[in-house]
Amino acid sequence: MGLIRASLEKSPATARVLPFFIFLLLTAGQDFFGQEARYWLYLLKTLVGGWLVWEMRPLVLEMRWAWSWEALGVGVAVFILWVGIDPFVPKNHLFFKPSESGWNPHAAFGQNSWLAWTCIVGRILGSSLVVPPLEEVFYRSFLYRWLVRVDFWNLPLNHRHVLSWCVTSLVFGLVHYEWLAGILCGLLYQWLVIRKNRLGDAITAHAITNLLLGLWVVTRGAWHFW
Questions:
Q1: C-alpha distances out from residue 145 to 25, 87, 196, Å
Q2: Could you give the CA distance from residue 80 to residue 90 in angstroms, rounded to a whole number?
Q3: Pick from 87, 83, 91: nearest CA to 210
Q4: Element (H, E) at 215
Q5: In sequence order, what DSSP letters do the residues of 109-142 get, joined into one string?
Q6: What is the SS3 assignment for 67?
Q7: Residue 46's closest CA among 27, 62, 65, 18?
Q8: Per-residue pLDDT of the chain (226 residues; tens, 9 = 90+)
Q9: In angstroms, rounded to a whole number, what is the distance separating the alpha carbons of residues 31 and 29?
Q10: Under a CB-based contact definition with an 8 Å cutoff, are residues 106 and 181 in contact?
């Protein structure tokens, strides 16, 4: 743990990139040990991600949650968009090979079992509280500004750069199974950062989107979104 903290302190870029890539590697590896293990590995990944966010806090000053009506509106709008266009857009099979049942703990541990609900609650909490700060710091704080200038920390968050805006949103979209929704989502979250000149509104919007999507998955049985 001390090694990770020392690594984060090396540079502004490392503090914003390393936690995201650790989380990404854990995500990529969670399906390597069988269908049942993936649920426990997700919970482990969430705990590691939460610890990484905690370690980042003193080093990434812009990583502060912020509330605004715009954040609420964007968060809800992205959720509606994500669900609404899903039946009409081909999925990203280039990087993803989805399972037939999706991420469904009820199928793995028994309908309404405590193990199933532990995994479901863990996923909703992880996607709503851990994923947003990690992803928003990497994409909207680091990548967007780094594509404009290497000393990105000297560039205001509200700096408008159309090419970087599009490239960052494209990359964000392509690492999602629902690629088009991901691109549009990235465009809207970046708009929020530029409009408010802070990262916290995008973190909040991202959390609202993921919370609503998680509740939709559970109440509608739409496991393919997970």
A1: 23, 34, 16
A2: 18
A3: 83
A4: helix 200-220
A5: H-TT-HHHHHHHHHHHHIIIIIHHHHHHIIIIII
A6: coil
A7: 27
A8: 678 888 888 899 999 999 999 999 999 888 788 778 899 999 999 999 999 999 999 999 999 999 999 999 999 999 999 999 999 999 987 777 665 557 899 999 999 999 999 999 999 999 999 999 999 999 999 999 999 999 999 999 999 999 999 999 999 999 999 999 999 999 999 999 999 999 999 999 999 999 999 999 999 999 999 9
A9: 6
A10: no
**Burial status of residue 135 (CB atoms within 10 A of its CB: 0-12, 13-18, 19 or more):** buried
Instruction: Report the SS3 class of residue 171.
Output: helix
Between the CA atoms of 45, 51, 57 and 62, what dihedral angle is there, to the nearest 10 degrees?
10
CA-based Rg of the chain, rounded to a whole angstrom? 17
* Triad 210, 213, 218: Cα angle to 5°: 125
Instruction: Give the number of C-alpha atoms closer than 13 A to the C-alpha of residue 100, restricted to the C-beta side.
Output: 2
Exposure on the CB side of residue 71, measured as CA atoms within 13 A: 20
**157 backbone dihedrals φ, ψ, rounded to 5°:** -65, -25
Tokens 């290497």 sit on residue: 150
Measure the CA–CA gap between 103 and 101, rounded to whole angstroms: 7
Tokens of 225: 């979104």
Tokens of 189: 């979250």
Tokens 């993921």 map to which residue?
Answer: 210
Amino acid at 155: L
Q: Which of 109, 111, 152, 165 is nearest to 13 (CA)?
A: 152
